[in-house]
C-alpha cells in the first residue's frame, strides 16, 4: 500500500468521523423544531450537544486540511467546482455555530426563537448538501483535461445526488434522534424514540435505494460488503431503539453512517473525483496527490495526533455522560 | 470598469475582508485565553474570590469572542480551494501541510477543551477544569504558529523545489518551513501583538467600570493585569517588529521600500514620518524625515545604503522579466504607519497607566488606596491628577481598547499588500492564483454574502460584548465556590441546574 492510498483511507476516516459526530449534532439541530415542544426542551436538546459540537466540527476542518495537503488537485477541483453549494454550507456552519453560542446570551423570547430557527435551517441544509456533494463525487462530474470543473450549478442537482442528500438528511436526523434518546430523561426521551421509529422506515428505503444505485454504478465486492454492513447496522439500530437499548442503537446508527461512507469511498477508489467527460481526465489517488515526502510527514502527524484526538474526545463524552432533562435547566437560563 | 470587477479583484477583496475580519477575533482569543487561564490559576492557588469573579467575567467575553473567531476561521480554510484553486494546485504540497497540522493538532485541542471548560464547571474537579483552559490557550498559540509558518512561506519560500513536470512547488524540508527566520520573527511579532490587544482590551473595560466606581475590586485587579500585559507585550512587539523588519529588508526589499515611500536608493537613508507621494511620477512632493534612521532599521548601521522602489523594480524586471513589481505604495506606506502609530500609542498609554496607578511603597501613605477604592492617579511624589485630567485619562484608557485592533488590521494589510504582485514572493503571482473555472458572478455572490453576513454578525457580536461588558462580573453562587471533587460531577447534585453553560 503506497502512501497516497494510506491517505485516501485516512481522508475516508476523517469524513467518517465527521459524519458520525457532526451527523448527530446536525440531527439534534433539526430536532429542535421537529421534537422539542417548548423553550426548555429546545434548551435541553442544544445542551446535549453543547460541549461537543465544536470538537465534532473540527473533523471537517481536518478532512479539508488533509485533502489540501495530501491531494491538492482534488481540493482545488472540488471546492472551486462546488462553489455555490459549498458557500451555502459555510454560511450555515457560521450561523449555526454562532447560534449555539449566542442563543442564551439574551433572555428575550424573540432573540432565542430567531436563533432556534437559524439552528434548524443551518443544520438541515448542510446535512442535505453533504449528501449531494458526495453523490456527485462518486458519480463523477464534468472535469476537463486541466482538472477544472466545467459543469454548471444545475448539473450538481441530478437525481442520484439529490437522493444522496435525502439519505444524509434522514440518516443524520435519525442518528440525532437516537442520540437524543440516549442523552435525555423523561418525556423528551420517549418522544425521541418514537420519532426515531417513525423516521426509520423512510431512512431504510432511501438509504437502500441510494446504496444499491451506487453498487450498480461503480461497486465491487468490497463495496457490496459495506452495503450489507450498512443495511444490517441500520436495521439493528431500529431494533435496538425499539427495545430501548439506546446505547446500542446509537452505536449502530453510527456504524450505518461509517459503512455508508466506507461504501462511497470503496466505490470511488482509485479515483478521487471521476470525470464524466473522459475517463482519462479523472482525478485519481496518483495524479491528485502530493509528493511522497509531504505524505510521509503528514502520515507521522496523523499517526501521532489522531489517536490522541480520539482519546481526549472520547474522554469528553465520558465527562458529560449523564442524561439531562428539563429539570437541569435553571429557570433563568431557558 | 471591466478590470475593477475581474474575478481576481473580487477574490482579493473577499480574501482581504474575510481575513481582516477573522483577525479582529484571533488576537483577542489568543490573549484572553491565556489571561483567563492566568486568573483562574490565581484563583485555584489563592482561593481569593476576586480572581474567580474576574475569571468568569473575562471568560464570558472570551467565549463571545472565540465563537466568532472559530466560525470565521472555517471560511479561511476553504476559500483557498474556492477562489484560489490554481494557488492550491501550485503550493498544496507545501502550504497544505501546516494547515493540516493546525487542524489535527491545534484545532482539536482548542475546540474539545473549550467545550470541557464551558460545561465543565460542575463536572470537573478544580484543577482538571483549570487544565482545560490552559489546553485551550496552548491550542490557540499552536494554531497561530502553524498558520504563520504557512504565511511566512508565502513571504519567503524555503525548503522546496519546483517540479516542472507537475508544474508545482514541492516540499523538501518541512522543518525549514516551520523554523525559518521569517516564521519565527512573524510568530514572535504576531503573538506579542495579540497580548498587546488583550491587555488593552482589559485596560479599556476596567477603566470604563472604574470611572463609574463599579465592581472596583475585580476591575482593579484586571486593570493592573491589563496594564502589565500591555507594557510587556508592547515592548516585545516593538522588539520583534524591529527583528521582523530587518528580515524583510533582506527578503522583500520592495515591501520595505514601499513602506517608506523611498523611491530611489539612499546612503544613508532617512526614516519618513510623513510623505505625500505621487505614484505616477515616482517622487514625494512633501516629506518629513529623520535622517539615517531607516538605514539603522534596515541594517543596524546609521549610514548604510537602502535600495529604493525604482531600484528594486528594475532588479526584479531583470530577474523575472518585464512587468511592474510595485505594490500599491500609498497602502503600504500608510498601513505601515497606522500599524506602528496605533501600536506605540497603546504601549505608551499602558506605560503611563502603570506609572500613574503604581501603589504601596513608592507612594506616600495618604495616597495609597485600598482594594475596594478606585486607584488614585499619582503623577509623581505627592501630585495627583486633578478630577478633570483623571476623567480624561480614564476615557482615553477606554479608547485604547481599539488601538491594537486597528494596528493589527493595518499590519496584515501592509504585509499582504506589500507583497503584491506576488502571492508567493518571487515564485507565483496573484493573478496566476485565481480559480479559472469560477465565474465573476459566483465570486460576486460569495463576496456579497460574506460581507453582508459578517456585517450583521459584527453588530450582533459587539452588542453582546457591550451588554456583558457593562453588566460586569457575576456574583458567585454556592456551586461556584464548591466545585465537584469527581470527574462527571458529584452524585448528590444529579438534578442541579447546569452551571455556566450557554
From TrEMBL, chain A:
<comment type="similarity">
    <text>Belongs to the cytochrome ubiquinol oxidase subunit 2 family.</text>
</comment>
<dbReference type="InterPro" id="IPR003317">
    <property type="entry name" value="Cyt-d_oxidase_su2"/>
</dbReference>
<feature type="transmembrane region" description="Helical">
    <location>
        <begin position="249"/>
        <end position="269"/>
    </location>
</feature>
<feature type="transmembrane region" description="Helical">
    <location>
        <begin position="6"/>
        <end position="36"/>
    </location>
</feature>
<dbReference type="GO" id="GO:0019646">
    <property type="term" value="P:aerobic electron transport chain"/>
</dbReference>
<dbReference type="GO" id="GO:0005886">
    <property type="term" value="C:plasma membrane"/>
</dbReference>
<feature type="transmembrane region" description="Helical">
    <location>
        <begin position="195"/>
        <end position="216"/>
    </location>
</feature>
<keyword id="KW-0472">Membrane</keyword>
<feature type="transmembrane region" description="Helical">
    <location>
        <begin position="82"/>
        <end position="99"/>
    </location>
</feature>
<feature type="transmembrane region" description="Helical">
    <location>
        <begin position="119"/>
        <end position="140"/>
    </location>
</feature>
<dbReference type="GO" id="GO:0016682">
    <property type="term" value="F:oxidoreductase activity, acting on diphenols and related substances as donors, oxygen as acceptor"/>
</dbReference>
<feature type="transmembrane region" description="Helical">
    <location>
        <begin position="160"/>
        <end position="183"/>
    </location>
</feature>
<keyword id="KW-0408">Iron</keyword>
<keyword id="KW-0349">Heme</keyword>
<keyword id="KW-0813">Transport</keyword>
<keyword id="KW-0812">Transmembrane</keyword>
<dbReference type="GO" id="GO:0009055">
    <property type="term" value="F:electron transfer activity"/>
</dbReference>
<dbReference type="GO" id="GO:0046872">
    <property type="term" value="F:metal ion binding"/>
</dbReference>
<protein>
    <submittedName>
        <fullName>Cytochrome d ubiquinol oxidase subunit II</fullName>
    </submittedName>
</protein>
<feature type="transmembrane region" description="Helical">
    <location>
        <begin position="222"/>
        <end position="242"/>
    </location>
</feature>
<keyword id="KW-1003">Cell membrane</keyword>
<keyword id="KW-0479">Metal-binding</keyword>
UniProtKB/TrEMBL annotation, chain B:
<keyword id="KW-0812">Transmembrane</keyword>
<dbReference type="GO" id="GO:0005886">
    <property type="term" value="C:plasma membrane"/>
</dbReference>
<dbReference type="GO" id="GO:0016682">
    <property type="term" value="F:oxidoreductase activity, acting on diphenols and related substances as donors, oxygen as acceptor"/>
</dbReference>
<feature type="transmembrane region" description="Helical">
    <location>
        <begin position="392"/>
        <end position="413"/>
    </location>
</feature>
<dbReference type="GO" id="GO:0020037">
    <property type="term" value="F:heme binding"/>
</dbReference>
<feature type="transmembrane region" description="Helical">
    <location>
        <begin position="95"/>
        <end position="119"/>
    </location>
</feature>
<dbReference type="GO" id="GO:0070069">
    <property type="term" value="C:cytochrome complex"/>
</dbReference>
<keyword id="KW-1003">Cell membrane</keyword>
<dbReference type="InterPro" id="IPR002585">
    <property type="entry name" value="Cyt-d_ubiquinol_oxidase_su_1"/>
</dbReference>
<keyword id="KW-0479">Metal-binding</keyword>
<keyword id="KW-0249">Electron transport</keyword>
<feature type="transmembrane region" description="Helical">
    <location>
        <begin position="443"/>
        <end position="466"/>
    </location>
</feature>
<protein>
    <submittedName>
        <fullName>Cytochrome ubiquinol oxidase subunit I</fullName>
    </submittedName>
</protein>
<keyword id="KW-0813">Transport</keyword>
<feature type="transmembrane region" description="Helical">
    <location>
        <begin position="336"/>
        <end position="356"/>
    </location>
</feature>
<keyword id="KW-1133">Transmembrane helix</keyword>
<dbReference type="GO" id="GO:0009055">
    <property type="term" value="F:electron transfer activity"/>
</dbReference>
<comment type="similarity">
    <text>Belongs to the cytochrome ubiquinol oxidase subunit 1 family.</text>
</comment>
<keyword id="KW-0408">Iron</keyword>
<dbReference type="Pfam" id="PF01654">
    <property type="entry name" value="Cyt_bd_oxida_I"/>
</dbReference>
<keyword id="KW-0472">Membrane</keyword>
<dbReference type="GO" id="GO:0046872">
    <property type="term" value="F:metal ion binding"/>
</dbReference>
Amino acid at each position: 500500500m503506497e502512501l497516497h492510498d494510506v491517505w485516501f483511507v485516512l481522508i475516508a476516516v476523517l469524513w467518517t468521523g465527521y459524519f458520525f459526530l457532526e451527523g448527530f449534532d446536525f440531527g439534534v439541530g433539526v430536532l429542535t423544531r421537529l421534537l422539542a415542544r417548548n423553550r426548555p426542551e429546545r434548551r435541553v436538546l442544544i445542551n446535549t450537544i453543547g460541549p461537543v459540537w465544536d470538537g465534532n466540527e473540527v473533523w471537517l476542518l481536518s478532512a479539508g486540511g488533509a485533502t489540501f495537503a495530501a491531494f491538492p488537485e482534488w481540493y482545488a477541483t472540488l471546492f472551486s467546482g462546488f462553489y455555490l453549494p459549498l458557500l451555502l454550507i459555510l454560511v450555515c456552519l457560521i450561523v449555526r455555530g454562532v447560534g449555539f453560542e449566542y442563543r442564551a446570551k439574551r433572555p428575550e423570547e424573540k432573540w432565542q426563537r430567531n436563533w432556534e430557527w437559524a439552528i434548524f435551517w443551518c443544520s438541515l441544509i448542510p446535512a442535505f448538501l453533504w449528501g449531494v456533494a458526495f453523490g456527485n463525487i462518486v458519480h463523477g462530474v464534468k472535469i476537463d483535461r486541466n482538472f477544472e470543473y466545467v459543469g454548471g450549478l444545475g448539473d450538481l442537482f441530478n437525481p442520484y445526488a439529490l437522493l444522496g442528500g435525502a439519505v444524509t438528511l434522514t440518516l443524520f436526523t435519525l442518528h440525532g434522534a437516537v442520540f437524543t434518546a440516549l442523552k435525555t430523561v423523561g418525556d423528551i426521551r420517549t418522544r425521541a424514540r418514537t420519532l426515531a421509529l417513525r423516521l426509520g422506515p423512510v431512512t431504510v428505503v432511501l438509504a437502500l435505494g441510494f446504496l444499491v444505485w451506487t453498487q450498480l454504478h461503480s461497486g465491487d465486492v468490497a463495496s457490496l460488503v459495506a452495503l450489507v454492513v450498512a443495511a444490517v447496522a441500520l436495521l439493528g439500530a431500529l431494533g435496538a431503539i425499539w427495545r430501548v437499548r439506546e446505547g446500542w442503537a446509537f452505536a449502530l446508527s453510527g456504524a450505518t453512517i461509517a459503512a455508508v461512507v466506507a461504501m462511497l469511498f470503496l466505490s470511488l477508489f482509485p479515483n478521487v473525483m471521476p470525470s464524466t467527460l473522459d475517463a482519462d481526465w479523472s482525478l485519481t489517488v496518483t495524479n491528485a496527490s502530493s509528493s511522497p515526502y509531504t505524505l510521509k510527514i503528514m502520515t507521522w502527524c496523523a499517526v501521532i495526533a489522531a489517536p490522541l484526538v480520539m482519546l481526549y474526545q472520547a474522554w469528553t463524552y465520558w465527562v458529560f455522560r449523564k442524561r439531562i432533562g428539563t429539570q437541569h435547566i435553571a429557570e433563568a437560563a431557558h | 470598469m471591466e478590470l475593477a470587477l475581474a474575478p481576481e479583484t473580487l477574490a482579493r477583496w473577499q480574501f482581504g475582508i474575510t481575513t481582516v475580519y477573522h483577525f479582529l477575533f484571533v488576537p483577542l482569543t489568543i490573549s484572553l485565553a491565556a489571561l483567563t487561564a492566568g486568573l483562574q490559576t490565581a484563583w485555584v492557588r489563592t482561593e481569593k474570590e476576586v480572581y474567580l469573579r474576574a475569571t468568569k467575567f473575562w471568560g464570558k467575553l472570551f467565549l463571545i469572542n472565540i465563537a466568532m473567531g472559530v466560525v470565521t476561521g472555517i471560511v479561511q480554510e476553504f476559500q483557498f480551494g474556492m477562489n484560489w484553486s490554481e494557488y492550491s494546485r501550485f503550493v498544496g504540497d507545501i502550504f497544505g501541510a501546516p494547515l493540516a497540522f493546525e487542524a489535527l493538532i491545534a484545532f482539536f485541542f482548542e475546540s474539545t477543551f473549550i467545550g470541557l471548560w464551558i460545561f465543565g464547571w460542575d463536572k470537573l474537579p478544580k484543577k482538571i477544569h483549570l487544565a482545560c483552559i490552559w489546553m485551550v490557550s496552548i491550542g490557540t498559540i499552536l494554531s497561530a504558529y502553524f498558520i504563520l509558518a504557512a504565511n511566512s512561506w508565502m513571504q519567503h519560500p524555503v525548503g522546496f523545489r519546483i517540479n516542472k513536470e507537475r508544474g508545482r512547488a514541492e516540499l523538501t524540508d518541512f522543518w525549514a518551513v516551520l523554523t525559518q527566520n521569517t516564521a519565527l520573527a512573524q510568530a514572535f511579532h504576531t503573538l506579542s501583538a495579540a497580548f498587546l490587544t488583550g491587555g488593552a482590551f482589559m485596560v479599556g473595560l476596567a477603566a470604563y467600570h472604574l470611572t463609574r466606581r463599579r465592581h472596583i475590586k475585580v476591575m482593579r485587579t484586571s486593570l493592573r493585569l491589563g496594564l502589565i500585559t500591555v507594557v510587556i507585550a508592547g515592548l516585545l512587539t516593538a522588539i520583534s517588529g524591529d527583528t521582523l523588519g530587518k528580515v524583510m529588508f533582506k527578503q522583500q526589499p520592495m515591501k520595505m521600500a514601499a513602506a517608506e515611500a523611498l523611491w530611489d536608493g539612499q546612503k544613508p537613508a532617512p526614516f519618513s514620518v510623513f510623505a505625500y507621494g505621487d505614484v505616477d511620477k515616482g517622487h514625494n512632493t512633501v516629506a518629513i524625515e529623520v535622517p539615517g534612521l531607516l538605514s539603522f532599521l534596515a541594517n543596524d548601521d546609521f549610514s548604510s545604503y537602502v535600495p529604493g522602489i525604482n531600484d528594486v523594480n528594475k532588479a526584479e524586471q531583470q530577474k523575472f522579466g518585464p512587468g511592474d513589481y510595485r505594490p500599491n505604495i500609498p497602502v503600504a506606506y500608510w498601513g505601515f504607519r497606522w500599524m506602528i502609530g496605533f501600536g506605540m500609542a497603546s504601549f505608551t498609554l499602558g506605560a503611563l497607566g502603570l506609572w500613574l496607578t503604581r501603589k504601596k511603597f513608592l507612594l506616600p501613605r495618604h495616597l495609597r488606596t485600598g482594594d475596594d477604592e478606585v486607584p488614585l492617579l499619582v503623577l509623581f511624589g505627592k501630585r495627583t491628577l486633578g478630577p478633570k485630567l483623571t476623567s480624561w485619562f480614564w476615557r482615553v484608557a477606554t479608547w485604547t481598547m481599539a488601538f491594537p485592533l486597528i494596528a493589527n488590521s493595518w499590519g496584515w494589510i501592509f504585509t499582504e499588500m506589500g507583497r503584491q504582485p506576488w502571492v508567493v514572493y518571487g515564485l507565483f503571482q496573484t493573478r496566476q492564483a485565481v480559480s479559472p473555472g469560477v465565474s465573476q458572478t459566483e465570486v460576486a455572490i460569495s463576496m456579497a454574502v460574506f460581507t453582508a453576513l459578517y456585517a450583521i454578525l459584527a453588530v450582533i457580536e459587539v452588542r453582546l460584548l457591550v451588554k456583558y461588558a457593562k453588566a460586569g462580573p457575576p456574583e458567585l453562587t454556592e456551586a461556584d465556590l464548591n466545585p465537584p471533587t469527581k470527574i462527571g460531577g458529584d452524585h448528590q447534585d444529579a438534578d442541579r441546574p447546569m452551571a455556566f453553560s450557554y
